[in-house]
Amino acid sequence: MAILPTLQGPGDLRGLSYQELNGLAAEIREYIVATVSKTGGHLGSSLGVVEMAIALHLVLESPRDKIAWDTGHQAYAHKLLTGRYDRFGTLRQLGGIGGFPRRAESEHDVFDGGHAGTGLSIAQGLATARDLRHSMERIAVVVGDAALISGLSLEALNDIGHRQTQMLIVLNDNAMSISPTVGAFSQYFSTLKLSSAWRQSKTAYDRIVESLPVVGQPALTLSRRIRRMVVNFAQPGQLFEDLGITYLGVIPGHNIAGLEHIFRAALEVPGPVLVHVRTRKGRGYRPAERDQIGFHGAALPPMIDEVEARPPDIHTAIAHQAMTGPAMARKESAVPTPGLPDDAPVEPSGNGNSAAGGADMGTPSQAARAAASSRPANYTYHFSKELIELARVDRRIVAVTAGMPTGTGLHAFEMEFPDRFIDVGIAEQHAVALSAGMALAGERPVVALYSTFLQRAFDQEVHDVCQNDVPVVIAVDRAGLVGEDGTSHQGMFTLPTQRQLPNMIIASPKDEQELHSLVKTAFAQTHPFSIHYPRDPGFGVPERPSEVLPVGVGEVLRDGSQILIVGFGPIVERGRQAAELLERDGWSVGLINARYAKPLDRQLILDQARGKKLLVTLEESVVTGGFGSGVLDLIEEARVAEPVYRDVTVKIIGIPTDRFVDHGQVDVLRRLLRLDSEGIADQIRETLTRLRVAPAGAAASTAAKAR
């Protein structure tokens, strides 16, 4: 009898003999080939891990224990073992089974994958959350040899070895990604596979040297000392051992009993263990074994009925269907050094606890320190202060940074909550993916990064945070102009990149007290939440209790009949000053604090824009695709339905997109870019002149003279 159709879940495997399990492996291969011949898909990698998937589910108790499949296109056998046999024929079809793990499909899928190299960071996040809760679930991750050489994987391995996280890492080594794996790591894995021959040669060498007359024993002792120095790195897995990860391998990958035994043993070893498993891509289907590139997926070569060792048919004969198309184939080390207080969290004046800065600014003079201490605390300080207050109440809050604990203000968090603070070093990709893993496990992580360094982790924002729609709070420090660090550090590109991401909420405060409320709001909802705030000191506004603000709701700060200014972030204050300058010219100017770039307060903006001659948006970000573009899209959509908006002109004011911004003092840069209050007012005046619109006061005076 066929076994696969009778499986309800992975628990059913434990009642089967090894003979039955081997038969089940053959059934799984046949069904995968039969399905992929119709739907297309990633065939070779999934055929290569069938025994591995069975062994993992024998040893682990999913879904209590977690199995993360890096990349995920190798998880077809996992899907079949976890109750999706009946629907597997809909693979990759609209409304059917996905080609990658999907949490909406099954509680056995721990995250929505698809990109190579994310699995280790996700697993580290799951394990970190487990350890913070002091729970007992076991964590395993399957990662391919090609994915292991990605930068994100190496960042994760560095963190896993450093923190000695208890987990099982299964290295699926088939010497292939889509094409043959390349690079030094590929050669290293090949060296590991030859390690038995090397060990034998060492023994033979010892015998030869020891047999030499007179100098035999001394020469042997010396040679062994030299060999230890030279050979240690070439020993199997020494690289992983040096990272703090126990290495076991190389293990044959198509022996269920052997894999089960080694996995059970590995899970008993303290700390992280890497089991190096050698598999064959396309195993059991000769055309896929011969053409490992062509049969990777998702468009496959013509498929023929050639599955090895098939049991009695569990599915109709394999379709002879030709599949068309080609084969688918920093910063400096963040060691705190004395710096100007506005380069690090600054305590309010008078408390005597100003923190040293994290940038290489040199030692400031006493006059500079005195001047700085008289200024209001900066936004970083207020972010850190509110985060600590919330963490005292909510033990799920975990703070993560990438080599910048002082600059992001998290050094203060670490002092109070050392067990809930994680510094992964200069590894922004891992910081974000790790946070996604923790959020998947129920923690409430906040990852604080400078805007310019968050650029490195864009894929993790897309793939790990937003695709999984998990409540990771992203604190975007140094948003906007940062000044003297120049072109490489201006925080001007993050807002447009985030605006395109589904599920992402994007906020920025008009002042430091509103930042407190936005931090509180971020932890009161369940979606990715990004808060942008500048390097600047605050405005010194009176302290007020933080509150949860409704998401996507702005506020009207002043009314006006002719011009509407809509600002995002602290630039709102410069918009207020510009409105006052324009009011002296006779213009009637309204002002909105948007608070949110995504979602926009559509109704508020439309209501206030009605009847205006000019709508002006303000942001300290590149204008292409940013906050202003979102408002423009809103007005353009409204024009089609309501004629009242057809006379509303939209002017977007922000950082020009045709060049990088060089270094210089922030105030000077804002003046040059015309983003100070006077520059904003001048840009608005120039636009009004081109529109040939007169101030309300001037129009009234002209009318009186005519009478």
Can you describe what's shown?
The structure is a single chain. The protein is an alpha/beta fold and 707 residues long. It folds into 3 domains: 287 residues, Rossmann fold, CATH 3.40.50; 192 residues, 3-Layer(aba) Sandwich (Rossmann fold), CATH 3.40.50.970; 152 residues, Rossmann fold (3-Layer(aba) Sandwich). Helices cover 39% and strands 13% of the residues. The strands form 3 sheets. It has a 7-stranded mixed β-sheet with strand order 7-6-8-9-11-10-15, sandwiched between helices. Strand 10, helix 20 and strand 11 form a beta-alpha-beta unit. Helix 5 crosses helix 16, helix 14 runs parallel beside helix 20 and helix 16 runs parallel beside helix 18. The termini are far apart. The C terminus is likely disordered.
Distance between the termini: 101 Å
CATH superfamily of the largest domain: Thiamin diphosphate (ThDP)-binding fold, Pyr/PP domains
Number of separate domains: 3
> According to CATH, what is the topology of the largest domain?
Rossmann fold
Mean pLDDT: 82
Shape verdict: elongated
Q: What structural class do the secondary elements suggest? A: alpha/beta
Strand content: 5-15%
Can you give keywords for this protein?
disordered C terminus; Rossmann fold; 39% helix; single chain; 3 domains; 707 residues; seven-stranded mixed beta sheet; alpha/beta
Which helices and strands occur, and which strands form pairs?
Blueprint: H1 18-39, H2 43-48, H3 50-59, E1 66-69, H4 76-81, H5 119-133, E2 139-144, H6 151-163, E3 167-173, H7 184-193, H8 195-210, H9 216-231, H10 238-242, E4 246-252, H11 256-267, E5 272-278, H12 286-290, H13 366-373, H14 379-393, E6 397-401, H15 410-416, E7 421-423, H16 428-440, E8 444-450, H17 451-454, H18 458-466, E9 473-477, H19 494-499, E10 505-507, H20 512-522, E11 529-532, E12 555-558, E13 563-567, H21 571-584, E14 589-593, E15 596-598, H22 602-609, E16 614-622, H23 627-641, E17 649-655, H24 666-672, H25 677-691, H26 696-706
Parallel strand pairs: 1-2, 2-3, 3-5, 4-5, 6-7, 6-8, 8-9, 9-11, 10-11, 13-14, 13-16, 16-17
Antiparallel strand pairs: 10-15, 12-14
Helix pairs in contact: 3-11, 5-6, 5-16, 14-15, 14-20, 16-18, 21-25
